[in-house]
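Forwarding these from the shared drive since the link keeps breaking.
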Amino acid sequence: MRPSHLTIVCLLISFLGEKGVCQNININSISTIRQSSGDNGYTLDGFRMTEGSRPKLLNPSNFGANGIYTKVISISDNYGTSGSLTQVYSSPTNSIFFFGTFDKNNTSTQQFTNDEIDSLYNWSLRGGKVIITTQSSSFGYDYTRLNSKWSFSTNQSNPSSFIPTTDGKNTEIFMGPFGNVKTASEGGSLQGFFDTVPPNSKILATNGNGYPTLIVDCHTLDLIVADVDGYTALGGISAGPTINNSQDKFWANTIVFMDKLEKPPVITKSGFDLSTGTFAAYQWYLNAAPINDANNQSYTVTKNGIYSVETTMKCGCKLMSDTVTITNYQNVPNNYFLPTAFSPNQDGLNDILYVRGRGIRDIALSIYNRWGEKVFESHNTSDGWDGTFKGKPLGSAVFVYCLEVTFTNGDHATNKGNVTLIR
């Protein structure tokens, strides 16, 4: 980024139309009108992003019902006047917001108030997803208030880059639908790194010297990026709507990452069966103490008490759920249950088909398509079906299953039936 600016870019991402054929990612951008003169290119309607970054998001071949990522992106350019950003706090957390970069020294800039930054932070705590890109500089918007909320600070280092860490390699940013990214660049003559990161955070990328350049704040679940030019022409984003290089992939994959970033876990209770959303790993707790071998998406209670679950996201963040209190537990016979339908649409609900039940030791589950071809097999209750076959998602259809269950007391049960996959 050019040294006459401090970059602050916040992208608040969430989703509309969680069910249905066409799903949306709606992005509201702070308009470049907020700084009408000078180098005002670092917003989605600014000249450094309209040539390549914005068209790539709006290209239906990239984001669309038949695109590489099957959600449609829409962009609105708003919040162009001082004080207007305070309105974001009352906005639904499934709205989208993009905070561009502005030069406080430019006479045309409508300054951002502390109340606006507070509103943005509190909106994030309510569930909004934010991408913040910032840079160390004596120029640009005074982001002291921003730092005080998100607990980070930056320093300057040229040249700089985004080299994935072990945690970063496992995310869609570097291994996403638009292709693998081994490294991405910052850009311009002002680049940087973080010399302070939030205390509860995961580092997803560093520069060549090992200093953080891309982090996830596990408290707010926001992505914080050391330089906006990772997403602009100065960093290497190509002109036009086509994904042409690693920098383009880095940009498009970042949007996918935020779209798929898990929300904090919520426990669903059905009798004595507890379950939560889809995460990378699980640990269930009883009265704040971990339960041995309780590491699946669901757990069947065995006694009265206060239950919770700690989940691990793909980025490495660990999130603790709400609590559920059980006061009426009583012993019941062994049982098992396989849902008759599931919907692997990445909404965190019924995305995976699992065998659930009480007292189960082993299972043997086989699922077949209408031609008799086996599309899935499992011998463990923690190994569920995500609706894919040979790595590709299957469409809506009815499948036949064969299930054998062995309980801890040695009893057996077998069953055959149908299960419906809903897209």
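-- next protein --
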Amino acid sequence: MPELSPHAAVPDPDRVSLAEVARLFLKLGVTAFGGPASHVAMMENEFVRRRRWLSHERFLDLFGAANILPGPSSSELAVYIGFERAGWLGLVVAGVCFVLPAALIVAAIAWAYVRFGSLPHVAGVLYGVKPVVIAVIVDALRALAPKAIKSAPLGALALIAGVASALGAPPLAVLFGAGALSVVVRRAGRNTGGASAFALPAVAGVTTVASVVAPVSLFTLFLTFLKIGATVFGSGYVLLAFLRRDLVEHLHWLTESQLLDAVAVGQVTPGPVFTTATFIGYLVGGGWGAFVATVAIFLPGFLLVAMTRPLVARIRRSPVAGSFLDGVNVAALALMAVVAVQLAHTALVDVTTVLVGVTSALLLVRFKVNTTWLVLGGALVGAIVGARG
């Protein structure tokens, strides 16, 4: 039997059915709490270790590519995986099924928000889910780090990226900077003596010129969120800055308080944080507004994955571009590690949450328990404790 390339897309060349793709990504869409780092960790557990749809190396390459595209990185990783295993239809099905549960949940919360004027109480459930999220992220880092950190220089690069992120460096600068440094180190190691120039892309959204309240039309709503989806790099906090500038300061569609509530809903519900757009769309345009805003903010990610997916293999075959991707990969893992530490401060707050986190980690490492059951178990514990409190 011929030996597989370490960067082969899958160990088994047979494609999976669209129904299987839909089922698994719908399940992830319902249970993927905790933001992009948690989503990536759950995908690694489901598609690399449990189902062997991808090798660790291929998963890391797709993860690195998703991180240097604008838009929601975890959703783009889902789209990449769907494309890998089921072609063009898999690309659409995986992305839609990952986003759809979150969008429907957020739309329901937006309806309740408009009707009752406040957010439904979710603190108890999140209390139990957050420690599980920490365990899932740490377990993914444990599995991916040995595959990404293939040399001492890459290990040092991961450390530098982690420190830079912890000190507040923008995620995109950390990723591109690590990729550039990896290329420099490779060239220095080969004593080429050549000088290299690297330019970080300047990402600037096209600001809306209106300074008074703009009428809410579905077309304007679509263009506004299409622009945001095509230009926002980084975390939900970067998204917040773009939304504030466009929707509060220029279009005056939202108040500061409404915007913060919208972002909070996107962060505490499962699935991508970019479903904040669903909440805002409902607030300003009802059901059709929610639909239009959701499609617009996620559409650029689908298109970018479709255009760049064939390039990932070419990048890996190029020594220089491969070195750049190696640097991006270790930096992405460093960003995940920093996020895990930051989240741990708010997740592990007492004996109960520490026990939930430790138990989840043990069940993951020792017994390979599906993360879906762990999330549901954490939510149950949180609901019980919250009810008693």
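The CA atoms of residues 84 and 310 lie 10 Å apart. Residues 18-201+299-376+383-388 form one domain.

- D.
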